[in-house]
Amino acid sequence: MEIVEAPEVVALPERHYAGIRAVTPFKGMFSVRDQLMQDLHARFDRGDTFFRLYVVDMAGEMHVEVGVVTDAAVEPDGRVLPGVLPAGDYATMTYAGHGRRANRTLLEWIRGNDLAMDCVQDPAGDRFGCRYELYRTDPRTERMRTRWRTQLAIRLDR
């Protein structure tokens, strides 16, 4: 894993998006993500693509969403629903390579700096107010995931 932009706290604005949600086991989750991307990109051919993690339970079910940032709110259309990435202070880091190690690095940096995440633990897993991976490399033009530049973002507790 290569760290492209070191961990830092960044104030991000509210952003509208169109997204498709799914519940999937961790094993196989990225195949589900890739299929959701294809489905969403069939309708939205521009805009930053991201993978949002609502509930994280690596031994159970993951509640996820693939989205494309839009200029304004979109109308619901079947599985495609409007959403908002909320404004706030986020711990961010941009990397290239393998995501599991990058996520661990950012989480350790958050804990090491005594920052509180917007996250609640419940029986379903860790429920995040907003946690996502924004693909700075367009997945439609670069198929090799290890070459993608990906920004991790976890909203901090207010």
Task: Give a verbal description of the structure.
The chain has 158 residues and is an alpha+beta fold. It has one domain (2-155): Alpha-Beta Barrel (Multidrug-efflux Transporter 1 Regulator Bmrr, Chain A), CATH 3.20.80.10. The protein is 17% helix and 46% strand. Strands 1, 2, 3, 4, 5, 6, 7, 8, 9 and 10 form a 10-stranded antiparallel beta sheet that branches. The chain starts with a strand and ends with a strand. 25% of the residues are buried.
List the topology elements.
Layout: E1 2-12, E2 15-25, H1 29-41, E3 49-56, E4 61-69, E5 81-85, E6 88-96, H2 99-112, E7 119-122, E8 125-128, E9 131-135, E10 149-155
Antiparallel strand pairs: 1-6, 2-4, 2-5, 3-4, 3-8, 3-9, 6-10, 7-8, 9-10
